[in-house]
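Bit of a strange request maybe. I'm writing a small parser for structure token strings and I need a real example to test against, not something I typed by hand. Could someone generate the tokens for this chain?
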Amino acid sequence: MHSEHSEFMLMIVGYGWNEALPPDEARQAIDQMMEWCHGLQKQGTVTSFSPLARMGKIVSGRKGSVVLDGPFAEAKEVVGGYLIVLAGSLEEATAIAQQCPILEHGITIDVRPMVNECSIAQKLREEAALLPA
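Reply from user aminoacidic:
Good idea to test on real output. This should exercise your parser:
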């Protein structure tokens, strides 16, 4: 690995991938997934990983005035877990994601660089710097 690394979030997207599998195959797939995650952690590539519960809350509206049970996205679009990986580039993080053993069961992985500043805040700060004093 490179001496300088950035953090990337790998979001595991898709629930229900296991429902078409016999229970033994589903358990085997989960075991392979956990083995893969623990192996990446031992290498120092993954700083954390976790599955996410199916239940939760959706907060929206002014001052968070609307709180609903969730998630409501299509089951295939729900984030089911995540990994935080250290990689030298987006391409390297993507190559790590491509090795995920449950991809063959229909899940997808959204690979995103983690940044220090929200892109909206950065744009507003840059625009403010261009304004006359």
